[in-house]
Amino acid sequence: MPDHDPRLMHRSLLDRPLEVSSASGSYLTLASGRRILDGCAGAAVAAIGHGNAEVQAAVVAQMSRVSYVHTMAYTTDSAERLADALLRDRPHGLSKAYLVGSGSEAMDSALKLARQFHVENGQPERKHFVARQQAYHGNTIGAMSVSSNLARKVPYNGALLLDNVSFVDAAYGYRGQWEGETEDEYAARLVAQLQDEFRRVGPDTVAAFIAETVGGATAGCITPPRGYLEGVRRVCDEHGVLLILDEIMCGSGRTGTYFAFEQDGDVRPDLVTLGKGLGGGYAPIAGVLAHQRVVETLRKGTASFNHGHTYQAHPVSCAAALAVLQIIEREGLVAECARKGAWLESELRRVFGSEKHVGDIRGRGLFWGVEFVADRASKEPFPLEKLFGIRVQERALELGLAVYPGRGTADGVKGDHVLVSPPLNISDEDLQTVVTVLKQAYDQAVKGLSWVDGKCPEKQYWWHEPCGTLNGGLYGSHHARPQRKH
Q1: How far apart are CA 278 and CA 86, in angstroms?
Q2: What is the pLDDT averaged over residues 408-417?
Q3: What's any one GO cellular component for it (predicted)?
Q4: Residue 477: pLDDT over 70
Q5: Fewer CB near the terminus (10 Å): N or C of the chain?
Q6: How far is CA 34 from CA 28, 250, 273, 397, in A?
Q7: Residue 358: partners with Cβ closer than 8 Å, 6 or more residues away
Q8: What does residue 448 show for φ and ψ, rounded to 5 degrees?
Q9: Dihedrals phi, psi of 147, to nearest 5 degrees
Q10: What is the pTM of this model?
Q11: Which helix (H) or strand (E) holds 429?
Q12: What is the dihedral of CA 316, 322, 323, 324, to 10 degrees?
């Protein structure tokens, strides 16, 4: 092993990521001195931007008092206050917060909580979970089992993943809605499909239905059609199935309301997962918010949740998240997100709406996806070897803008998109720069399409065999980087 080979195990063993030496506001500064406008807030994480002195002070103050306790025996003021702030007035019936260290942990916790609910409710036969295609819920075994990000699952199929999971169609209007079908008709068809799936597997065996309220990075900010989630709620109620909404990426104010589902009518989820923007990147934290009806069932039974983590409700992470939440509330950043999001939607549609290789623009608030296609009329994705979304992301980075690329958008294998999800407090000027630079990057990527079909691109990517042939293992990633030249 050469001496310069890093001891830190990065996501790639062949390519070293860019080193960030400092970060402030909406900008990252690289070790080279270059400044990067963080147009995706990392992975929709840095909700209030980077380097906030108030959050830093809250973390230092908490560490000066107590930095760790074991929650089997102890609690802390920061954890209690964060839960109180999240669940003030029991929004939508949500009454308890279970705080953990990552979104994957939150989803695993939600699955276990759903299972325990049914066991304590006298229905231990409820072991099956239904989820949606083109969705991602985390990297731990449980969370990955209910995900359908093909690239991330393939190595573990048949070896580690759960087999008590089935999938229904994504709420993906651009590709799923039939020609001539209204939005209401599309929503009704999706709800009927869920009803049929419950009946197929036996509705009395289903523990929960899991869905991202607004799709994340796998399909690029797909939004539910009007009435869909209300219909899902009715079908779940009919069969005694819990509804788990994953808002790890789209929640915490990202879509212009604190909970993304607030824009979808009378939904009342049983469990909601939060993460990413919850702590704003200042400390690892995520959580599950449980409806009162779930809590009361456990209270009448064992009066405990049979689950735990060493670092759950970590006092320093909770102090950071509480400070982030207080800043969001004090500065009205959720309303600002809605205002800026309306402008961003209008500007993205104005700039990209008629572009030859832009198929769809979708999202809410400051959470937008731009899907690229080879042909607008047929919606045909680019061939895999074109790497179009990656090329847009690379060109943007060269121009000083970070956006979040995705592959497999259309069907898990083909398709390209980028996400735009800047800090909620990004300035209007910087938001304009995001769109302007993204258009420049797109234009450069389009020019790069001139290399002939069948010829290898200059760089090889880690999910490809030579000359762009899809690797049989499909070991893909949301944002892969070039690995080596031929």
Answers
A1: 10
A2: 95
A3: cytosol
A4: no
A5: N
A6: 8, 29, 36, 10
A7: 352, 370, 371, 372, 373, 376, 442
A8: -70, -10
A9: -90, 165
A10: 0.92
A11: helix 428-447
A12: 110
Asked if 366 contacts 376 with a C-beta cutoff of 8 angstroms, the reply is: no
DSSP per-residue string spanning 319-368: HHHHHHHHHHHHTTHHHHHHHHHHHHHHHHHHHHTT-TTEEEEEEETTEE
Length of the chain: 486
* Cα distance between residue 210 and residue 143, in whole Å: 10
Phi first, then psi: what are they for 269, rounded to 5°? Answer: -60, 150
Distance of CA 298 to the CA centre of its chain: 29
Residue 136: Cβ within 10 Å count: 26
The sign of the dihedral angle between the CA atoms of 64, 52, 481, 156 is positive
Q: Which two tokens stand for residue 348?
A: 């993205």
Q: Which strands sit side by side in the sheet containing 358-364, from one edge to the other?
A: 358-364, 367-372, 416-420, 404-407
Q: Which three-class secondary structure state does DSSP give residue 315?
A: helix
Give the CB-side neighbour count of residue 168, counting CA atoms within 13 A. Answer: 22
Rounded Cα distance between 300 and 294, Å, is 10
Q: Pick the closest to residue 165 from 189, 120, 135, 185 (CA basis).
A: 135
Residue range 9-60, pLDDT digits in tens: 998 888 899 999 999 999 999 999 999 999 999 999 999 999 999 999 999 9
DSSP-assigned letters across all residues of 244-259: EEEETTTTTTTTSSSS
Query: Quick one: 53 exposed, middle or buried, by C-beta within 10 A (0-12, 13-18, 19+)?
Result: exposed
